[in-house]
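Recall from the previous lesson that a structure prediction takes nothing but the amino acid sequence as input. Here we apply that procedure to RBR-type E3 ubiquitin transferase from Arabidopsis thaliana x Arabidopsis arenosa. The sequence below is the only information supplied.
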Amino acid sequence: MDDEYMNYEEEDENYSLDDDEQEDENYSLDDDEQEDENYNEAEVDVQQVTSTKSTSQVITKKSLVAAQKECLVRVMELLSVKENQARTLLIYYQWNVDKLFSVYIDQGKDHMFSCAGLTVFDPSLVTSKKIMNCDICMEEDLPSKVMTRMECGHSFCNDCWKEHFTVRINEGESKRIRCMAHKCNAICDEDVVRKLVSPELAEKYDRFLFESYVEDNNMVKWCPSIPHCGSAIRKIEDDDDVEVECSCGLQFCFTCLSESHSPCSCLMWKLWKKKCEDESETVNWITVNTKLCPKCCKPISKQDGCNLMTCKCGQHFCWLCGEATGASHTVQSIAGHSCGRYKDDKVRQMERAKRDLDRYTHYHYRYKAHTDSLKLEDKLRKSILEKAVSNAETKDQQVFKEYSWVIDAVNRLFRSRRILSYSYPFAFYMFGEELFKDEMSDEEREMKKNLFEDQHQQLEGNVEKLSKILEEPFDEYDHEKVVDMKRHLNNLSNAVDNLCKKMYECIENELLGPIQFGIHNIAPYRSKGIEQATEFCAEICQT
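The prediction returns the following tokens.
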């Protein structure tokens, strides 16, 4: 995309709230009446809680007990099993109650128990012997009171069991401690483990079992906030690609637990972060702007016009071809040396490094420009909120009784600015050769690139206009001008919303659709932004 699209100051220099024609061209909207109607529906108090069902729930440390207990009760009631058996089943099936019930119906209880490592108590295995042997420590003639038998029928001395449990708990394998017998996959009874280990270790054991609801549950993940807020987020629906907001305010990708990065896929964002953090582009710069000394192999940069280079190690070499030479030279040539032969591989390597560096610089500069704007506009949001609240108390209540019109516009600016930020890493990988070299021909890549940049350009231009209008001192305007500004913000906000939708449709259907293969899925566009997770309700347990 041309650099001209990053600078809108010149374009907006003569902006006026009365210049309808210029704005209408940029809005790209077909029906102003429809926009006003949509705006009225969206114009609600900023504190109002939406009545629609949230797609995620916050589970605090306190409600985690209720969430886990509810699932346990469902399994215990259906299968008529004890709590420790229900927990073993749920851990094996990753706390997916529906999947557990499906296996039970399709393949039966015995098959389900066998897979999970559960055994049904068999009274015939109970021995009446008073003296027993331990096959682990090989102690003989042990009294039965120092021996413990698991439901699988295997008996060993308490000291061996205690050592076994201690090692497994300390190694982080508390959730599925198996019997010590050779080739026995039975899971040890929780009550027996607690009885034989120390109180401190029993507490650690219970904590691992307690946290299993989050650690082993595909629908629940800890909030990645630092410091940790102590909450977890649970998805209501089994949607692989979703961005969520915790009650602590952190927005993140549920799949990879990094910051929200749509329209980047998780893989794209992971590669981009690594590229920005490591020295890959520094290496490219060195390749383009330096030559290696043929003797000591240290990089040398050129400071003047002479092509005879002299390294600190004393070696002379030619800047043009990199070959070692003598010291004698003239302006036109180096004595005893000719580098007129074309070295195709070396030239292509340098050209490729320069092209890669230019591409990265182009996209990274624009990515950083939007992320910097996002940080600066946080101050703008706070300032506007203060102005809106102040004017709601002092000015015409007919106009200012609801100030959500300007708050909505600021929120729209934030959402669209964030999308623009992550659209540059997306474009870097989408139209480069690192991920999709074999999936697109050069012609197809160029065609898709032009399609994306056309839509991206319109969105970027309108976002910059929205940002500039929000900097207007509306708290100093009279009633008529405030009404006019409200109409303009309404139109421009709707335009930005529509352009975001169109760009996402382009990405999902035209760009990634034919080639994603489930790897490069992205979180869908949400007009109202990332939903904040609601508080967990103990009456619902849909895992």
